[in-house]
From TrEMBL:
<feature type="coiled-coil region">
    <location>
        <begin position="226"/>
        <end position="390"/>
    </location>
</feature>
<dbReference type="InterPro" id="IPR036277">
    <property type="entry name" value="SMC_hinge_sf"/>
</dbReference>
<feature type="coiled-coil region">
    <location>
        <begin position="95"/>
        <end position="122"/>
    </location>
</feature>
<feature type="region of interest" description="Disordered">
    <location>
        <begin position="438"/>
        <end position="458"/>
    </location>
</feature>
<keyword id="KW-0067">ATP-binding</keyword>
<keyword id="KW-0539">Nucleus</keyword>
<feature type="coiled-coil region">
    <location>
        <begin position="14"/>
        <end position="48"/>
    </location>
</feature>
<dbReference type="GO" id="GO:0007076">
    <property type="term" value="P:mitotic chromosome condensation"/>
</dbReference>
<dbReference type="GO" id="GO:0000796">
    <property type="term" value="C:condensin complex"/>
</dbReference>
<keyword id="KW-0547">Nucleotide-binding</keyword>
<keyword id="KW-0175">Coiled coil</keyword>
<dbReference type="GO" id="GO:0005524">
    <property type="term" value="F:ATP binding"/>
</dbReference>
<protein>
    <submittedName>
        <fullName>Structural maintenance of chromosomes protein 4-like</fullName>
    </submittedName>
</protein>
């Protein structure tokens, strides 16, 4: 049964551990996904704010340019023309190869110069501000982006800036490596100004370049959405903190359960080793139990005898009370006689009075010793009765547990210990009874010694009788009565069955 219990406990513990780990993992994955999504939204909002700030700066620059900063624009155009001329000079280095195409090139140059002059004159006439002219093959990515909301265009410009778009990789390499600008091809190949090329490959990864950007045109709704997202993010962070604390508690519980499982496995191994040996010892224990039951049956006291003994105890107590009353009367008589002697002898018997007082004190001490011994005897009787009752109750419980002895080996050991304790108590009580008997013997010796001293005092009284002839007769009667009392007290013996003084028999004599 214990083996099955430990096995079930181990299985339940493992199942609980697996379920708790699985739920914790699912909750962790869900929170990580929500955290990533919120972080992405937060980064997008932050980036959008940066783009808006840069857009405002660009708008300020455009306003400053439109107010009259045309000279700077003209100087930029002149620099551009000089750069174009330098490029043309570079192209004209290879004169032999270009002589055949020289007329066509010169015509193209004239056309380009005319177009450039026209482009420079048109903004001046209209007053639009500055314009930057570039090759058709070096078209900016910003010019290819189309948005629904024009407020997003500054953000797009901050993102792309001077990035150019080339139709092929060869053209992108040519423009990028010659002019050290950032170029992207239509296939996704990117050439950085430093000359590093990235992107491309067999599989094309589509980004957001070809998608239409959709934004909310209402600023209030955007702010409300941001507030909602922030509130949701705060709630999720609180939930994440709570789950982390729960995770710590669960991990602690799991570690404790692991330790418990290992300990239970060790206990299971120990029990699996101990069970066969205990099963082998079971028949011997059952036989021992039967022997103990037989011994208990023999040790059980007869209720009738106990009742009879209790009645005898009550009778003896009543007799003892009567004897105590008679002893009190005798003491009163002795006191009266002593007073008469003292009244007659006046101051002549001071020594006798002193010796009599000492003898009286010793007699009182002996009486108190006898009373203590009686109390000890009564207590021993009560202990004997309780031990017998306990033995009977243990016998009844052993008979009830005899039916289920194969399932209650531990209870058998417990009751065996209780039986041993009761036997030890029984031995202790017997030892106490023996001690009381020895104490009674010592008290008897003390009484004998007191009687000897009393005899000496009586001899001294006889010596004084010559001077107290008038009270000799009364003194002799008093001494005779005292001798009778002492003789009766010497005849007191302890009854081994009732543990009381059979005073009735003494006074009957």
């Amino acid at each position: 049964m214990n083996k099955h219990y430990y096995y079930c406990n181990c299985v339940l513990t493992n199942q609980f551990h697996v379920i708790a780990t699985k739920e914790l993992k699912e909750e962790k994955d869900r929170l990580q996904k929500e955290q990533i999504e919120l972080r992405r939204r937060f980064d997008d909002e932050k980036e959008l704010g940066g783009y808006e700030a840069k857009a405002k700066e660009e708008e300020g620059r455009l306003e400053a340019i439109s107010l009259g900063n045309l000279e700077k624009t003209v100087s930029e155009l002149k620099l551009l023309v000089t750069q174009q001329r330098k490029d043309l000079e570079k192209l004209s280095i290879d004169i032999p190869s270009l002589e055949m195409n020289l007329p066509a090139l010169q015509k193209q140059i004239r056309d380009l110069e005319a177009e450039l002059k026209q482009c420079v004159c048109d903004p001046k006439q209209v007053g639009l501000g500055s314009m930057k002219i570039d090759y058709v093959e070096r078209m900016k990515m910003f010019d290819l982006i189309r948005v629904e909301d024009e407020r997003i265009r500054p953000a797009m410009y901050c993102a792309t800036q001077t990035t150019l778009v080339a139709p092929t990789l060869a053209q992108a390499m040519k423009v990028g490596y010659e002019h050290h600008v950032r170029v992207v091809s239509l296939q996704g190949d990117i050439i950085e100004p430093s000359g590093i090329m990235s992107g491309g490959g067999r599989t094309r990864i589509t980004g957001k370049m070809g998608r239409s950007v959709r934004v909310a045109t209402d600023p209030e709704s955007t702010v409300q959405n941001l507030k909602k997202i922030n509130r949701k993010m705060d709630n999720l962070e609180k939930e994440l903190a709570n789950i982390r604390s729960q995770k710590g508690n669960l991990e602690k519980t799991v570690s404790e359960l692991k330790l418990l499982v290992t300990q239970q496995r060790k206990d299971l191994e120990k029990l699996s080793i101990d069970i066969p040996s205990l099963e082998m010892n079971l028949p011997a224990l059952q036989k021992q139990i039967r022997d103990l039951e037989a011994e208990l049956k023999q040790c059980v006291c007869d209720p009738k005898q106990v009742k009879k003994m209790s009645d005898d105890v009550k009778k003896k107590k009543s007799v003892m009370d009567k004897c105590e009353e008679q002893a009190k009367k005798l003491e009163e008589k002795v006191a009266k006689v002593h007073e008469e002697i003292m009244g007659i002898s006046a101051g002549k018997t001071s020594a006798i009075k002193k010796s009599l007082g000492e003898a009286q004190r010793k007699l009182n001490k002996a009486k108190s010793t006898l009373n203590n011994l009686r109390v000890e005897i009564k207590r021993s009787e009560r202990d004997v009765v309780t031990c017998t009752q306990r033995a009977t109750s243990l016998h009844e419980e052993m008979t009830k547990l005899g039916k289920t002895v194969h399932d209650n080996n531990e209870f058998i050991e417990i009751y065996r210990g209780q039986i041993d304790e009761s036997e030890a108590e029984w031995k202790v009580k017997n030892a106490e009874l023996k001690e009381t008997k020895t104490a009674h013997g010592r008290s008897a010796k003390e009484l004998a010694r007191l009687s000897a001293s009393r005899d000496k005092e009586e001899e001294s009284l006889e010596r004084l009788e010559r001077e107290l002839r008038t009270v000799r007769h009364k003194a002799e009667e008093h001494a005779g009565e005292m001798r009778q009392v002492e003789a009766r007290m010497r005849q007191i013996r302890l009854n081994p069955l009732t543990r009381l003084y059979d005073l009735e028999e003494v006074f009957a004599r």
